[in-house]
Specification:
Helix content is 86%, strand content 0%. With 366 residues, the chain is mainly α. It folds into two domains: 38-181, no CATH class; 208-351, no CATH class. α9 (196-237) packs antiparallel against α12. The protein is globular and about 80 Å long. It starts with a helix and ends in a 9-residue tail after the last helix.
Length: 366
């Protein structure tokens, strides 16, 4: 009995130690990248791109040299990117320009609808509350103009002053190619840091961490494309303005799990309400709920949970904790860090991890 208690204490101490080391390591990486924002962006982008195309490089590498496989993939990606730039980018640019130009009119329309006594959606709200809600768009617009544009300007300034966009499009693929070509040597150098009797364990841990990181990156991109396509198609069918722009916004923001459909919901419903009426806005609201449920229950679990091994509760908790500790960077890094921590727990505290994933069944009293 005493031996069991000591083992439980040991497991608890191991878990706390892993948590502390993971937080310290994450904080160190985020702070380091924050001191070199442009270079850090290029390194992270190159690593993510390498993870994204690694399975295809491996498959093509079985029938052709690895260098040829990488060049072949780059050619295909370049053609797809060029098609997107030619076909989609002009429409996105037009939508963004029209939205910015019509922003004052949108605010005026929202304020008019909020204070209109005949509006069935707000007629039962007290007049004082309606006036307060009507002034919110103006206040939010002022905050965005004061702080949001300044932040975007500083961010773009850092990127553009350090390296041009053209250079980024060259550097990221080149760095990713070197990572792919030298992956075996990097793995071998890492394994040699451990004593021979620990190398097999280190290799297993490294392999699982690699699968988790690559699965998360590919899963998030696939999920974002699907969610963005569903949102854009739905809004286009419902004749909502700027459907393509909102769909792309939803797909990009879906890099933060479950955020795409939720964040794009507000502008889509407001635009639908202003230009198409309450009935159209109600249908759009229902369809957004359907998209969110389809993504949360069918798409995301298959492309994300299968790769990171975390339930939606743990994913959302990790995002909240990461954003609280490290801001925007923590929001993006929270889920892969949590997934890697799960891998470490499974390897170094296997019994505790197994109990956490498969809790004992509680039998009901007879």
């Amino acid at each position: 009995m005493r031996f069991r208690r000591e083992r439980r204490v040991t497991y608890a101490l191991k878990i706390l130690l892993l948590l502390a080391l993971s937080l310290l390591l994450t904080a160190g990486v985020v702070n380091f990248l924050g001191r070199i924002p442009a270079t850090g962006f290029l390194l992270v982008a190159a690593l993510a791109f390498a993870y994204l195309i690694y399975p295809a490089v491996e498959r093509l590498g079985r029938i052709m040299p690895r260098v040829a496989a990488i060049l072949f993939l780059y050619l295909g990606i370049g053609l797809v990117t060029a098609a997107v730039v030619v076909l989609v980018l002009p429409q996105l640019s037009d939508d963004a320009r029209q939205l910015i130009a019509s922003f004052p009119d949108l605010i005026a329309r929202i304020q008019k609808e909020m204070i209109a006594p005949t509006n069935p959606l707000v007629r039962y709200i007290p007049a004082a509350d309606r006036m307060y809600a009507a002034n919110l768009p103006t206040q939010i617009g002022a905050l965005i103009q004061t702080y949001g544009f300044a932040t975007v300007e500083r961010t773009l300034g850092v990127l553009l002053s350090t390296v041009s966009i053209l250079a980024a499009f060259i550097i990221v693929p080149v760095l990713a190619a070197y990572v792919l070509l030298d992956a075996a040597n990097i793995r071998r150098a890492f394994i040699t840091l451990f004593p021979p009797r620990r190398q097999a364990k280190a290799l297993a841990v490294l392999s699982d961490l690699d699968k988790t990181a690559s699965g998360f990156i590919r899963g998030q991109i696939i999920d974002g494309v699907i969610v963005g396509t569903m949102i854009g198609t739905m809004l286009w069918l419902m004749h909502v303005r700027y459907a393509l722009l909102i769909g792309v916004l939803g797909g990009v923001l879906n890099l933060i799990p479950y955020a795409g459909a939720l964040v794009s919901f507000v502008p889509a419903v407001l635009l639908s309400l202003i230009y198409n009426g309450p009935a159209n806005a109600l249908v759009v609201t229902v369809l957004f709920a359907v998209i969110h449920q389809v993504d949360g229950n069918f798409i995301s679990p298959r492309v994300l949970k299968a790769s990171v091994g975390l339930s939606p509760v743990w994913i959302i908790s990790a995002i909240l904790i990461g954003s609280e500790l490290f801001g925007v960077a923590g929001t993006f890094l929270a889920v892969p860090v949590a997934a890697m921590l799960r891998v470490l727990l499974m390897h170094f505290v296997p019994r505790a991890a197994a109990n956490a994933e498969n809790p004992p069944k509680v039998e009901s009293p007879a």
